[in-house]
Amino acid sequence: MDSMMMGAMSKNMESMPDMQMMDMAVMQACMDACAACEQACTVCSTQMMDCSPACMNCADMCNTMMRSMMRMQGMTPASMMAMLNACIAMCRTCMDACGRHADESDVCRMCAQACQACMDACTAMKDMLMASA
What we know:
The chain has 133 residues and is mainly α. It has one domain: Substrate Binding Domain Of Dnak, Chain:A, Domain 2 (Up-down Bundle), CATH 1.20.1270. It is built from 5 helices and no strands. The longest helix has 27 residues.
């Protein structure tokens, strides 16, 4: 299914200025990391610890980032870069908040790790965008 979706997205992006050179494997990894982070943050937010608001915000941001990558129409490299920066910033906020509980809570530790993985994937996506510019 992933390869079918990536094929369809790649075909759509051929007509978009400045987006033809996207590495679909990097994009897929970023979408997967955003989805995993959204799920981890959603689970973590139910613990009702002081990290819950950051977790809820991060889950929403990761969902928005992933959905934006799935429908690239209307995106430009500049708007994609802004979205990636926002996602990285929200993941850092959540990771820091959950990091304070990581020794006591396996869920917070998992959430912080998912946030780190998402930041890494978003950074790889940014690097790809800058290299193709």
